[in-house]
Amino acid sequence: MQKKLLVPALILVVVGILVFVPGPKAEYGSSDSASDVTVTNFPDVQKVEGDVTVKGPLSHARLVRKESIIVPPSRRGDPTQMVQAGEVTTDGFSHVVLSLQGEVADAGYRGGTVGAVLVPDEEPVIRALNQAGRIEFPAEVVAQLVPGTGGYFGSKPTDNVVGFPRYRVYLYNSSGHGVQANLYVYMTN
After folding, report:
1. Of 48, 57, 66, 114, which has the maximum CB count within 10 A?
2. What are phi and psi of 127, to 5 degrees?
3. This model's pTM is above 0.85
4. What would the pLDDT profile of 37-95 be if each residue is shown by its tens digit?
């Protein structure tokens, strides 16, 4: 008698679960429904006041392009010869991936290297570069120029840990011929 009642009881429990338990909630980022968000205020760490809004997805990366840079023959570490290509602000990012690409201006070029060096924009570091040719704490990428490859060159991307909030960008070229270079700086967390 107990076995005869057990099967119908189990069926009723399963049907009850299927009928009365709510279905899955909308997934994160779904635009079908609004979601409640709670902001916890930690006054000693970070003060949050007023309305808090987020428009669109939060970006965790940024690409900075330094393109069409003419780099004459120069030596790495000689600030009077290297080409300055501005600055890159890395504050808020933990890694920077550098990629270098370009082409040789002359048809009869020889081998060599084209490189980009990011030097921390800190007064003692820049002074060491300018006075002694010392490159301290660099983030760097190098591309090889190989004769017979159609004049184009490209590096393998390099992943560098960010240690400073801003860097100065320098390029050099040991090929003996001018090049046009494109530097891509991809900052991530």
Report:
1. 114
2. -60, -45
3. no
4. 776 766 666 677 778 777 777 778 999 999 999 999 999 989 899 999 999 999 999 99
* Letter string b/e over residues 13-47, b meaning 16 or more CB atoms within 10 A of that residue's CB: eeeeeeeeeeeeeeeeeeeeeeeeeeeeeeeeeee
As a whole number of angstroms, the longest Cα–Cα distance in the chain is 99
Our separate counts of H helices and E strands in the chain read 2, 9
Q: Nearest 5°: phi and psi at 64? A: -115, 130
Question: Considering Cα of 130, then 136, then 137, then 139, what sign does the dihedral take?
Answer: positive
Q: Which amino acid is at 124?
A: P
Cβ atoms within 10 Å of 89's Cβ, excluding its own: 13
Q: Are 140 and 76 in contact (CB under 8 A)?
A: no
Domains recognised in the chain with CATH numbers: 61-188 (2.60.120.260)
Q: What SS3 state is found at 44?
A: coil
Look at the block and give the residue holding tokens 């009365």: 20
First to last CA, the chain: 65
The C-alpha atoms of residue 53 and residue 65 are separated, in whole angstroms, by: 30
